[in-house]
TrEMBL record:
This is ABC transporter permease. Its main location: membrane. Signal peptide: none annotated. It comes from Streptacidiphilus cavernicola. It is found in: Cell membrane. The chain crosses the membrane at residues 12-30, 100-123, 135-155, 175-194, 236-258, 278-300. InterPro entries: BPD_transp_1_N, MetI-like, MetI-like_sf. It is a multi-pass membrane protein.
């Protein structure tokens, strides 16, 4: 287990390093120049432009700028915003808590609805299974921005139950403002998890040893617990890890639709302003979230299935 943990940690660090090279290079090689954001519509003199480029270290070679940025990140310094002058850590940190809370609420909804609907569909073939499949088919086809628009028009504009945009101060106000964004995020994911759960359970139910146990008169509850649900967990856990990582990327759309001050909205604004240090930090956070979620799902599967720990030792 320890070797598997070290293997996943090494993969995380390698992925982050390679991603940092790609992110840093792609941003600074993109069309346009960062100092143009500071000048806006004004036409600066050559001396003023050169002074700003020197202040932002844009006159240095790209590898040198990357090395300076990477060493700063390793020391906890993510740089300063080119637009506001604030530290990138403070700008990202202020929205990270909101985004983590949004993703957490969404995943609670996804797990409860996805597992529940998938389990019911697997154990009740026939009309209930067909109705569940129809619901999940509709769920997975609705884009997050469409779900956001529908939820705002129904529950905010017509019913007035939730705010249409923004969040209120305090924990309760924040939770109240995140209900609709969380539902918009969870809509597609719960349908996907329901399908994975249904297929995994049905596959285990069709296994010969499960049918034999039922024929021999073992209680159905015991057979489902010990032979069906336990053996169906690995694909379900993998799906939960992938969906959690995907929700971080989906926050860019949903937070913009609901004006939620998280890292998703911050990313959209920073890209429009060409605030490269902020975009780099958020992009690395998204990559780290994706790799970390998958690593955690692998470790949880290893705890459930000892055979996966053996694979970790031989790798």
């Amino acid at each position: 287990m320890g070797r598997l943990l070290l293997h996943r940690l090494g993969g995380l660090l390698t992925t982050l390093l390679l991603s940092s090279v790609v992110i840093f290079g792609s941003l600074y090689l993109a069309p346009g120049s960062p100092e143009n954001v500071l000048f806006g519509s004004r036409a600066p003199s050559a001396a003023a432009r050169a002074a700003v480029r020197h202040q932002l270290h844009l006159d240095r070679p790209l590898p040198v700028r990357y090395w300076d940025w990477l060493t700063g990140v390793l020391h906890g310094d993510l740089g300063s915003s080119m637009v506001t002058g604030q530290s990138v850590a403070s700008r990202v940190g202020s929205g990270l808590v909101t985004t983590l809370l949004l993703v957490g609420i969404s995943m609670v909804l996804v797990v409860l609805l996805g597992l529940g609907l998938g389990t019911v569909a697997a154990l009740r073939p026939g009309r209930i299974d067909a109705a569940a499949n129809a619901a999940t088919s509709l769920s997975v086809t609705v884009p997050p921005f469409v779900a956001s628009t529908v939820l705002i028009s129904v529950f905010s504009v017509k019913l007035g139950w939730f705010p249409a945009s923004g969040i209120q101060p305090g924990l309760l106000g924040r939770l109240h403002g995140l209900v609709l964004p969380a539902c918009a995020l969870a809509l597609v994911s719960c349908g996907f998890l329901a399908r994975v759960t249904r297929n995994a359970l049905r596959e285990q139910l069709d296994r010969e040893h499960v049918q034999t146990a039922l024929v021999r008169g073992l209680p159905r509850r015991v057979v489902l617990r010990d032979h069906v649900f336990r053996n169906a967990l690995p694909p379900i856990i993998t799906a939960v890890g992938l969906l959690t990582a995907g929700l971080f990327a989906s926050t860019l759309v949903v937070e913009s639709a609901f004006a939620v001050p998280g890292i998703g909205l911050l990313t959209i604004q920073s890209v429009a302003q060409k605030d490269f240090p902020v975009v780099q930090a958020v992009a690395l956070l998204l990559v780290a979230a994706f790799v970390l979620c998958n690593a955690v799902s692998d470790l949880v599967q290893a705890l459930i299935d000892p055979r996966l720990r053996t694979v970790g030792r031989t790798a």
